[in-house]
Design brief:
The chain is α/β, with parallel strands linked by helices. Helix content is about 45%, strand content about 10%. Strands 7-8-10-9 form a four-stranded mixed sheet, covered by helices on one side. A two-stranded parallel ribbon has the order 1-2. Strands 3-4 form a two-stranded antiparallel sheet. A hairpin with a 4-residue loop joins β3 and β4. The radius of gyration is 26 Å and the shape is globular. The N and C termini lie far apart (about 70 Å).
């Protein structure tokens, strides 16, 4: 029994997987998550809520509860600004901003990053970042009922998480990480605001952060194994060192208790002492190699980017903090932010609705799904999803939770398909044959950008 206790301390959930604690009855469509959330928020009236035991929930139910809280907060903030006086805030440059109950982001496509950072900086300072979001692309006619927001987050994520803001990109891992050195911390905070804003408004991001970033956000313990997703070459070197069989082999690495990096701002090489005050003179041996690799991992993942990550966390928590967010484990938070890992178009088809006289057994419907499943590449299917819904990623519940609507729009073979991304509504002309549909659909999805063809 004591051995089991020690093993459980070393490896959390070693003997009983966390999934075994989930209760199917509270994770299905028949469970009233809204009522359970209401009971949780009124402990003065109710003594029990499943929200007090989040391990019984799966990630989809947790996401539903978080969406309920976000909707409640947005309604409260909307009412506050709609009914309150804009003159209550004398520090605001434009009184009309506070008179508006929405967080309005008017951005230009050719200056997307600069416009977004400028507007978010202003609204963070004003303290109204929790207003319901409305996005408008300058010079376009799209009205934001959700679809414009989805495209905005699709476009802004790769702009923010880039070298321009202070993130290093690694081609081997296909992930980005915080650049070391004297970085502009405010920009990392705004990067966190972008992620928090997406979650707060129910959108997913094409975010290429490694899993350790989500573990750090949730306060979970990290270690040497987490180095693999950030810097696999350093992780491999550490594992080779730990596999050494004698002192000569260990000495051949030439390691000391020090590390170095190139400052991304100044371009200078900076040396770091991992064992102050004499780490650079302390050789790594068979006796101290475990301490060395652990210290190195701690420095690389925590200490070297502490200020950068703290700023990022502060930005994220401006919109995503509190007991609802703390329900999530790191892997669940990752799914919430980036969506489901795979795209199941069969599930999308099963949940599709047909409107304006189009039926599931009509030739046009059958041609469309045949083209999707048999003719389109993975890249083209993602483009189609983005064309129809405004986002090329599936929510945490998968594509089966997306309600796509198909309808007929005319009967001209020369016309291209169109879409209302706010309502996941794809409109197809009644083409004369499958080949015409495939050609017109491919043309549309490969050339569409924003709210018109370019």
């Amino acid at each position: 029994e004591r051995g089991a206790e020690r093993g459980a301390e070393r490896v959390p959930y070693a003997f009983v997987p966390l999934a075994d604690f989930r209760v199917d009855a509270v994770n299905g469509e028949g469970f009233d998550a809204r009522e359970d959330y209401r009971r949780w928020r009124r402990p003065d009236l109710f003594t029990f809520s499943f929200c007090d035991f989040p391990f019984v929930y799966d990630r989809v139910t947790k996401a539903r509860i978080l969406q309920l809280e976000s909707a409640m907060l947005q309604a409260h903030v909307f009412e506050h600004y709609a009914l309150g006086s804009p003159f209550d805030r004398a520090d605001v440059l434009d009184v009309s901003d506070l008179a508006c109950p929405y967080l309005k982001l008017d951005v230009r496509r050719d200056s997307l990053l600069a416009d977004t950072m400028r507007l978010l900086t202003y609204h963070v300072r004003c303290g109204d970042i929790r207003k319901p979001l409305r996005v408008r692309f300058v010079g376009e006619e799209g009205v934001d009922e959700g679809g414009v927001q989805k495209e905005f987050f699709q476009l802004i994520a790769p702009e923010v998480f880039s070298k321009r803001v202070g993130f290093e990109w690694d081609d081997e891992t296909n992930r980005c990480w915080f650049a070391k050195g004297k970085q502009p911390w405010a920009e990392y905070e705004l990067a966190g605001v972008v992620v928090g804003l997406a979650v707060y408004n129910g959108h997913v991001l094409d975010l290429r952060l490694p899993k350790v970033a989500y573990k750090k956000l949730m306060g979970e313990k990290i270690g040497l194994a987490d180095l693999r997703d950030v810097a696999p070459w350093h992780h491999n070197a550490a594992m080779c060192l730990l596999r050494c069989e004698d002192e000569d082999e260990c000495a051949s690495f030439g390691f000391t208790f020090s590390a170095s990096y190139v400052d991304d701002v100044t371009g200078e090489t900076v040396s770091v002492d991992l064992l102050p005050p004499c780490g650079e003179e302390t050789r790594v041996t068979m006796a101290n190699r475990t301490e060395y690799v652990n210290r190195y991992a701690e420095w690389y993942l925590v200490d070297s980017v502490a200020a950068q990550f703290d700023a990022f966390r502060a930005g994220f928590e401006r919109l995503c903090s509190g007991s609802c967010v703390r329900m999530f484990r790191a892997d669940e938070l990752e799914s919430l932010i980036v969506g489901a890992p795979s795209l199941d178009f069969r599930a999308l088809q099963a949940n599709c609705s047909y409107e304006d006289g189009l039926g599931v057994d009509d030739a046009l419907s059958r041609w469309f799904w045949d083209v999707v499943h048999l003719d389109l590449t993975e890249h083209q299917r993602r483009r189609l999803l983005c064309f129809a819904t405004g986002c090329d990623r599936a929510p945490v519940a998968g594509l089966g939770s997306v309600r796509l609507a198909l309808s007929v729009n005319g009967s001209d073979d020369d016309r291209l398909p169109t879409a209302h991304t706010c309502f996941n509504h794809l409109m197809l002309p009644r083409y004369s044959c499958r080949e015409v549909l495939r050609e017109r659909l491919t043309t549309a999805i490969e050339n569409a950008e924003g709210f018109g063809l370019q």
